[in-house]
Structures are given as structure tokens and as C-alpha cells.
Amino acid sequence: MVTVTQIMTERKRFGTICEDEMSYTPTIGGRQLARELRRLREEAKMTGEQAARALAWEQSKVSRTENAKMRITAGEVMEICEAYGITGEKRTQLIQLAREARKKGWWHEYGDYVKKGFIDYLAFEAEAATYRGYEAQLVPGLFQTEEYARAIFRTWSSNEEDIERGVEARLARQERLATSTRPLHVWAIVEESALRRIVGSSKIMHEQLGRLVELGRLANVSIQVLPYRAGVHAAIDGPFVLLAFDGYPEVLYIEHLMGCVYLEKPGETARGSVVFDHLRTSALNTGDSAALIEEVRRQVS
Where do the structural domains in the chain lie, given as residue ranges? Predict the structure, then answer.
């Protein structure tokens, strides 16, 4: 009689499940590897079915490796290289990419404390080279002070652990702004309403606005304010973020009430870029934006 354990073992072997598949969040390296494996299979003139036979895998496993739906080991990459005839430096690069892609990022420990789907965003942002974003109602998470972030999380939860872990995750994101050896280059457009909305208390807002002024002085950070007088604009439907990477296509991130969506098709990200450029021309320049932030800060003190 076949036991459940034996069935599960076989399914793991052939790639129909994996131990952490349900919680797997691929890094950009993992996504790059998946895209490259698909390209190499196609260059080898092999269908997914033919590749599966050559590897003695289930075809579904080939599909998931090429769509970044499962972790792939360095050993499995070696098998693929042999099946596709990949040798030399390219083989070495793929194996190294597989090893790096299997490393869990800092964001994994916060999976239970952030909005559904947001853990994927943290993985993207952690490896992005540039960030271009528009925010309408609140100061962007990358710029939030600890107390400002805590006040926001308190509107979503009454569980102290959830609140504190959420704040930790938000602050961890900010390390790349000023202390990282690989700083994130940020260009943020923020509605004037986000500056004037009191979050927590006047004291918290005063501190938060001061933080914005400080961050705006960093060489890798540009902050523009979209004033009330700009009226109706191209992003009136809501906030969004465009993330660009070295060696991977740009990603457009849009958050909504029930979760978030990621768009990677060139036409979709190009549309996001056009909208961002329209906002940029409608917003105050960085100098005038800093002056307005200072003015609002004086008013709330």
C-alpha cells in the first residue's frame, strides 16, 4: 500500500510540489535565472516536453522553473546545462546565479505582517537600482519616520506585535537610502495633501516633514511636491511605483484595497513612465518642493 508520505516524496522529487513552494518569493536573481533557462531551452530547439524527457522531470517542473514558481538548486541547473549542452563560463554563471537566488532576503521574516502580495514588492525593491513613485495620501514608506509609520499601522491593526513588526519592515527598507553600499536612487512625487494630512499628531508630522527635507538633500534622492493648484492630473486614479533593475525588465507596482498588482509588459511599464513624466512636469521642482515642505512644517509646529 502506498502511503501519503511516499506520494509526497515522489511529488517533491518530480517537482509537482516543493516544501516552501506556497511561500516562495523569487528574487530578481531567481527571475533572471528563470528567464535565462527558458531562453537556453529555446536556443537548444527543445520543447518543454522534450526538455522534461531529457531531464527525467515532469513537464510541470520545467514550466515552473522557467516561470520562477519554485526554487531551483545548483545541482538541477547542472542537469539542465548538460541536457542543453551548456558548458564553460556560461555554465558557471548559471550555477552561481542559482546559488545566489536560493538565499533568503531580509524581507522573508515579515511575510506574516505585511499586506497580501507586498512581500513580492519588498523583494523587488531590495534589488532595484532606481525607484520612481507617486504617492497621493501619505508620505511614501521609504521616507516615513518610525512614529509616522507606527501611527499608520495602528489604523490597520490593534495587535502590538503586528504593528511593531510592520514598522520594523518599513524601517529596514530605508537602509538603502543613506547607509547602503548600493544605494537606491529614488525619485518621488508626493501630493501636497500628504504633507498637510496630520498622521498621529502635530509633533509626529513636524518630525516627519523634517525627515523629508533631510532626505531631499541626499544625492540619490529627489522629492517633488505636486501642489493643489496642479488640479486634475495623469495619475488621478492613484499611486504607483516603477522599479528599474540591472539586467531585468522594469516593474510597475500598483497597490489597492485588497492587495497589489505587478505589471512587467513593456507597454504597461512604458505607460507608467509616460504618466510619471507628466507628473514630474506638473510638480514643483526639488528646490521649491523643499521650501513648501518647510513652510508646512512651520505651520504644524
Answer: 4-101, 106-300
CATH match of 106-300 with 1.10.3470: no
| pTM for this prediction | 0.75
User: Three cell numbers at 196?
Assistant: 498637510
Name the superfamily (CATH) of residues 4-101: lambda repressor-like DNA-binding domains (1.10.260.40)
Return all residues near 253 (Cβ < 8 A) that are at least 6 apart: 121, 124, 240, 241, 242, 243, 260, 261, 262, 263
Q: What is the pLDDT along the chain (301 residues), one digit of tens a residue?
A: 444 334 334 434 444 434 444 456 677 778 878 888 888 899 889 998 999 999 999 999 999 888 888 888 888 989 999 999 988 988 888 888 888 777 777 666 776 767 767 878 888 898 899 999 999 999 999 999 999 999 999 998 888 998 999 999 999 999 999 877 889 999 999 999 999 999 999 999 999 999 999 999 999 999 999 999 999 998 988 999 999 998 788 999 998 877 788 898 999 999 999 999 999 999 999 999 999 999 999 999 7
SS3 134: strand
Ramachandran sector of residue 15 (left: φ over 0; alpha: ψ -120 to 50; beta: rest): left
**Helices of type H across the chain:** 4-14, 28-43, 48-55, 59-66, 74-84, 88-101, 118-127, 146-156, 160-173, 175-178, 192-196, 202-216, 266-282, 286-300
Which residues face 295 on adjacent strands? Answer: none
Alpha carbons 279 and 257: distance in angstroms, whole number:
23
What is the C-alpha to C-alpha distance for residues 168 and 162, in angstroms, rounded to an integer?
Answer: 10
Are the CB atoms for 27 and 127 separated by under 8 Å?
yes
Residue with cell 527558458: 38
